[in-house]
Amino acid sequence: MSMLNGFGLIFAATFLVVGGSTLFAWSFLDRGRDDSEDGPDILKKERLSALSTLSLLLSRASFAQPLKRLLSEANVDWTVGRTLLTMLLISGGVFAVLLRLDFVPFGGAIAISLVSSAAPILWIQAQRAKRLRTVEGQLPEALDFISRALVAGHSLPMTLELLAEEIGPPLAGELRKTVDEYNVGASMEQALENLSQRVPSVDIRFFASAIMTQSRTGGSLHELLEGLADTIRERGTLRGQVRALTANGRMTAIVLSLLPLFLAIIMYVVNTEYFLLLVRHPIGKTLLLAAICAQVIAYLVIQRIVDIKV
Asked: How far is it, in rounded angstroms, from Cα 89 to Cα 84?
């Protein structure tokens, strides 16, 4: 009977989470958005979900487009609907497991399950950051290639097409999209603008701005690209030096975050009854939840301090 009550409670909690998530999404619906303001678009429209009903609902949600842009920048083959459903499944699964643990309070189970739902977003952001770092590492070599090809007499579209065949991913794929947009009728300025939007990197914006400025004012494009390549290399060197100098702070954040967990494990092994007194007492549960929250906040603060933009 107790097992049935437990499953009934889990079912009710999952139903509340699903209903609350639906109401939360509906509260952010933007019914007054006018798609005609975005201008003509010759690119294929991607669906927000494989489910037609969910895709229609998300098409009017204000958070759907930023999430879709994040997925595109990370080059993750997920839809917005799949991402939201994955977040909901993780949250419900963690909540169901925590309900089976006696030492976890009900409020703490809700808080931890809500925080765990952000795991897919954190993974997508990590993939996005990794992809942008790879693109920025490829860009100096790509600029040198474009500069040499322009001196040899090739046009810019032909040069970008040759570069897409020579250089590796992920920059090759983005350049191929840029050339394809130009070939189907978009202007080179618009294609480069779309490139800077798909790859939100400062270096890519410099590259696109340099070409668009040169096309309007004239001048030697290959010399401009050579100077830009040298500047990007210097920025990359400086960024590596900053990461080396802040490595101590990042390691400190990791050690201080894992140290309480190791101490809890050692305390449980050495004196189990003493440790269980803490996790079973109502005041102990509250203190544990407060300590976990404090650890998370401290980790985020240290990461914010050592995150120096170059």
From this structure: 9
Q: Are 80 and 71 in contact (CB under 8 A)?
A: yes
**CA atoms of 224 and 205, how far apart (whole Å):** 14
The whole-model pTM stands at: 0.72
- Please give the torsion angle defined by the CA atoms of residues 183, 185, 190 and 196, in that order, rounded to the nearest 10 degrees: -40
List pLDDT tens digits, range 178-198.
999 999 988 888 999 999 888
- Token pair in block for residue 88: 């909901």
For residues 104 and 51, the answer to whether their CB atoms sit within 8 Å is no
Tokens of 67: 């999430």
CA distance 35 to 127: 30
Q: Which two tokens stand for residue 310?
A: 């170059």
- The tokens 């020579």 sit on which residue? 166
User: 25: which residues sit within 8 A by CB, 6+ positions away?
Assistant: 57, 58, 61, 63, 84
Q: Cα separations (Å) of 32 from 29, 36, 49, 58, 187?
A: 9, 12, 21, 14, 30
Task: Judge whether 124 and 76 are in contact, CB under 8 Å.
Answer: yes
Q: In the chain, what are the domains?
A: 1-20+63-117 (no CATH), 131-239 (1.20.81.30), 246-310 (no CATH)
Local structure of residue 198 (DSSP, 8 states): H
Q: Residue 179 is which amino acid?
A: V
pLDDT digits (tens, 9 = 90+) for 273-310: 888 888 888 888 788 888 888 888 888 888 888 887 76
Is residue 101 left, alpha or beta, with left meaning phi > 0 and alpha meaning psi from -120 to 50? beta
Do residues 179 and 164 lie in contact, with contact meaning Cβ atoms separated by under 8 Å? yes
**Would the CA dihedral through 219, 223, 224, 225 be positive or negative?**
positive
Q: Which residues of 60-89 are buried (b: 16+ CB within 10 A; e: fewer)?
A: ebeebeebbebbebbbbebbbbbbbbbbbe
